[in-house]
Write a structure and sequence with these properties.
Layout: H1 3-18, E1 21-26, H2 32-44, E2 47-52, H3 54-64, E3 77-82, H4 86-99, E4 104-110, E5 113-116, H5 117-125, H6 129-173
Antiparallel strand pairs: 1-3, 1-4, 2-3, 4-5
């Protein structure tokens, strides 16, 4: 393999190793202006988008011992990768694909697992990471909050009984 291709394969390997997520996207038939718009939106979301030859992606996958057979690596393939919120980027790809039918997720790779196109769509349906964190925090706090509420209810019911008895005594003295 030529040195240029070895460099490209090593850059793909590095991108896959250092990224939290990698999505493979078809873009055949997309205009240059639309593809630039997609890249700009992805950059704003903290993701990078590079166009790679399918043969080089397959060689990089072989070096990493990834089984990308489930992903259709034919025609033009763009590799979208980055750090951070994977669902926001997947959502962006799905939304852009609704406007530009040429853009479709082929699959991806995340946390040691190969993702199908349907899995990328499922990631797009997830709420944003801060919302998921808030939901988890609410679930973790619920048992303690419920315990405090129950304990507080018992104490307040005793106070209510004592107050009612005191009111009864005051009314009897009047």
């Amino acid at each position: 393999m030529r040195i240029e291709k070895q460099y490209l394969v090593s850059s793909i390997v590095d991108a896959i190793k250092t990224s939290d997520y990698v999505y493979f996207v078809s873009f055949a038939g997309l205009t240059v202006k639309s593809f630039s718009d997609l890249r700009n939106q992805l950059a704003a979301a903290g993701a990078r988008c590079t166009v790679q030859k399918n043969a080089l992606i397959k060689k990089a996958a072989d070096q990493l011992e990834l089984e990308l057979e489930a992903i259709d690596l034919t025609a033009g393939t763009a590799m979208v990768y980055g750090q951070g919120d994977c669902s926001a980027v997947a959502k962006l790809l799905v939304e852009f694909g609704k406007k530009q039918e040429q853009v479709k997720a082929k699959g991806g790779y995340m946390d040691g697992a190969v993702l199908s196109a349907a899995a990328v769509g499922a990631l797009a349906d997830l709420p944003a990471k801060p919302v998921l964190q808030a939901m988890l925090l609410g679930v973790l706090q619920a048992p303690a909050r419920n315990l405090v509420t129950v304990l507080n209810a018992k104490v307040s019911s005793i106070v209510n009984v004592v107050n009612a008895y005191k009111d009864k005594l005051e009314n009897a003295n009047n």
